Amino acid sequence: METAHTVAQALATARRRLTQAQQTPAEADGLLAHQLQRDRTYLIAHPEAELTPAQSADYAHLIAQRCAGTPVAYLTGRRAFRNLVLQVNSHTLIPRPETEHLVEQALQLGPANASVLEPGTGSGAIALALAHERPTWQITATDISLDALALAQQNAAHHRLTTVRFVHSDWFTALTGRYDLIISNPPYVATDDPHLTQGDLRYEPQIALVAGPDGLAAIRHLTHQAPTYLQPGGWLLLEHGATQGAACRTLLQQRGFNDIRTWQDLAGLDRLSGARFLHRTSSSSRLI
Fold first, then answer.
1. What is the pLDDT of residues 18-60, one digit of tens each?
2. pTM of the model
3. Could you read off the pLDDT of 49-78 as tens digits, one per residue?
């Protein structure tokens, strides 16, 4: 990438390179704003502003990484999720707009002073969004990855969200007690899914994406185990793939859940399923 002397020159070169690499040329603006620690308004108002040689070199490196496919969120270290801007890195999934629907349903279904569990919190996006919008809720967030938990705790500290308790746990193994709501965006991609070799998924942690040959291993485990940790009448809410709604409903039904539902995203695709666990019997604690 040739040396750029002004904002306008840098953007023109970067947009051309991104286009050639079949990336989105408009990403050049956000990456330059990040590099200069300015907002996009500054780029519009000061196209003639000169970059230092170091700034030009660093920006060229960012653009080269994006051309190679590195996700923008990993390059900037940030991603907006609902009303929060979160730190992200390669130890966690990048929070996606689709997951905001999971948060919205939890906000509607949870009681006023809910006790909430989020297994597999990653960057903490779901737990922290809930804590931000429901400060009376007591939230426990777990992850098997210590690196992910450390990042989630940093995000909580940055936003001063003190009602979230973070626990190092492989799903439920380190937990006791029961919750009004269990909510999770677990791995749900099949091992041989071709999407794993495309786009951002190439760079995201496989442990947070892949769930066995049918993509349902984590969902199957959560539906089997959740009743032990739910209050009677408590909700389990799970994000899943667009073709997995029927399978999720079947798993919930087999496990003895009631009021089973699937919700669609803005594209009309099945995106999350949930159900209430209303009663306990001697057989309801057995895995199916």
1. 999 999 999 999 999 999 999 999 999 999 999 999 999 999 9
2. 0.90
3. 999 999 999 999 999 999 999 999 999 999
